[in-house]
Design a protein that fits this description.
Blueprint lengths: L2 H44 L9 H18 L3 H5 L5 E2 L10 H16 L5 E13 L2 E12 L2 E2 L7 E8 L2 E6 L8 H6 L2 E2 L1 H6 L3
Parallel strand pairs: 1-7
Antiparallel strand pairs: 2-3, 3-4, 3-5, 5-6
Amino acid sequence: MNKSAKKSTSRKTGATAKKHVINKWIILIPCMMLCLALVVTAVIFFIPRDNTSFSYECWQLRFAVSDFLDDIIDENYNSAAQSVCFVSAEDGRELKSNDIHRGIWCRRMEALRKGVRNNYLEDYNELSVRKENGVFVVTVLLTVQYQGQPDTFYDDPHVLTVVEVDGEWKIASISEEAIQTDFEKAISGVISAAELERGDL
């Protein structure tokens, strides 16, 4: 092999090696950028902070509220009752989640659904969970049926009252208004002494 052929071969080998190095960097740099972006996103997601809807806390609460509403739509009231925060109507103190309180709540929901009023949750959308100044704000647009027709009272989003009990999110009510519809009263965790005395089981 003559000298010019050797030089040509060595140039080709050198050029090929440079191309391989460049190709590696072309693949490596975007991969490194993607990994960095994922790490930063994960850190932002898992660090508790205010004024955001993008956090692990918000995701947990959104999941809990979504499960609760899905159970109600499916008429799986026993499961939904596990996510209700029960409160005394007389003094506002928190009540234990036991078979008696859950039973009263389930009976109320069943009575509305199967009674003359035929009042029930058909669907929901626009579920939003946001943490603002240390407080979680949960809003949702409900589609409620009343005697076979859409209840127009639910045209605007509702603000849910949620509390954390023993590390789990519970729903206390779906309305902060003083005057509430039958559905809002039934779905809330408010239990009166009269309901307990009647033995609404």
